[in-house]
Every structure is written in structure tokens, then in C-alpha cells.
Design goal:
With 335 residues, the chain is α/β, with parallel strands linked by helices. Helix content is 54%, strand content 16%. Helix 2 runs antiparallel to helix 5 and helix 3 runs antiparallel to helix 4. The longest helix has 45 residues.
Amino acid sequence: MITQSRRGPVALGAIGLFMVLLVTVSMFFLDSLPIIGASTKFTAEFKEAAGLRQGAEVRIAGVKVGKVSDVRLDGDKVLVDFNTRNAWVGDETTAAIEIKSVLGLKYMSLDPRGDDTLSPGDTIPLARTTSPYDVIEAFSAAASTIGEIDTTQLAESMEVLADAFTDTPADIRASFDGVARLSETLAKRDQELKKLFAATKQTTQVLADRSAEFEKLLANGGQLLAELNNRQQSIALLLDGTKRVSAELSAFVRDNEEQIRPTLENLQAVVNILNDNLDNVNKTLELAAPFYGIYADVLGNGRWFDAVVVNLVPPGLPNSLLPDRPPLRTGIGGH
């Protein structure tokens, strides 16, 4: 019994850990679970894949309802497996491969039709599917075809044909003359046309090679817009908080107006008194300046001040009779 009681918590812990791992792994395959979030699988037949790849979107009326799970070859046709979720697919539904962007990305579009629901796993036949016309491939094929034409030989052939029909009626002869002139014009512009189609081919190739960079650029643009949206929300919250603080301050001033008003009035009275006495203070400083100048001259020789006593000698006494004595100095410290 003691052994069982000790092993019980260990067993429960192991079972709990196993359940956590099972739930964690199941999260990665949530779409494939039989009941929770399961999607419905169908198949569509196409004459050609037209650039449709695994993982491409499946849309109904422009709304994404699923994705392509597999694209494989079956004889002379292509089978496309796809899944849909929360979408009604009728037994007469048509499918088409559409162009998603100018970079050549494709998606599959569904047009739900019919009275009954298409059973899971059923196939949309080739008669109800269409593939897009690839302009890039058409231009590339046209460039290759025109590049292989010997325009000089074509012009000579047209001239021989025109000479052969010299004796024909005027209308027919004029028609062939026009065709001959057209061939000569094409021969003269052969180099320009070759350069034009070569540049077009290079441009399409560059766009095809940089498709991943363009997709990354668009994805980063979405992240930038999301960040700007977050910043806009933050600024809105900041302004809302500032508005609330302003309201609180207004309420505080309004509630304490009776106490604050006398203080402000007394402060204003003090300011008025200082303004009234500002001229007196300035005049006092102006009058004190000469006094401080003379005071500095008197006490500028040391710890004593110089004093001159006048009118002690009778007037008219010769200078030779005056005593040779230094000025009278009285020390501040009693010297």
C-alpha cells in the first residue's frame, strides 16, 4: 500500500505531461482534426496548372475560403486538391484559375452553383473549369517566333510574288504591292523589333525572379501599416489621458476657487506695491553710488582712513614756517 501511494502521483504526473504534449502537437494539425475546425476537401480538373501552386488561396466572390493542398499531373490533365471551410459548394460549381497580381501570382476561384451540395471528395470535372490566358507566356512565345523569322527572305518572297502577279488586275496587283512594302518595312525594323522583344523578355524574367522580393516588400508594408495603426492608437490613448487630466485639474481649480482667490489677490497687491516702489528703489541706488565711491577713496589705503583738517594755520604764513609733518591718519583699530 505504501508503494502504491508513492507511485500514484508519479503516474498522474506522467499522464498529465502526456496530455499536455498531445494537446500541443494537436494545435499544429488543428485543421485536420475530425470535428474541431475540419475543412472539406474537393478536387478540380484543369487543362493546365497555369502557375497555380500548393498553398494558393481558394476564393468565393473574392473572399478567401480555403487553400490549395496539392497540384499533380494525371495524364493529359492536372488535378488540383483544395480545402474549403464554412462555405457552401454546390454540385454544379465551376472553378477557374485567376491572376492575383501583376507579378503572376494565381488563385483558384469558385462559383457555387446547383441545387444540392457537392459531396466531400468529389471532383469538379474538366467541363466546368477554365484556365487563364498567360500574357507573359504569349509575349515570350511571340518573341521567340518572330526572332526566328528571316525577314529578308520574307521580303524577297513578297517581291517575287508581286512580280508574278504583274499581269493581274490592278486591284489585286495593288494589294500585293502593299504586302511587299509591308514586308520591306518589317525587314527594315527587324533589329528594332528584336531588341524590343528581347527587352520585354528580360523585363518579364526580372519580374519573375524578383517575385519573392516583391512579396516580402508587400508583407513588410503590411507590418508598417500595422505599426502605424498601433502608434495611432497609442497617441489616441495619450490624448484621451491628457483630456482626463485637464478635466481633473479644472475640477480641482473649481473646487478650490474660494481658497485660491484670496491668495492670488494678496499676491497681486504685493506685486502692485513693488511696482509702485520700483522708482524709489532705483533712485536710492543712484544716490548711493557717489557715497560708496567717496567711502572707497577714504578707506582705500589700509586699516585707517585719511582726514584733512583745514583752516588751522593763520592765513599769510610763509610755507617755510609750516611744519613738515605727514597728513593726520586715524586708524580704524586705534592707531
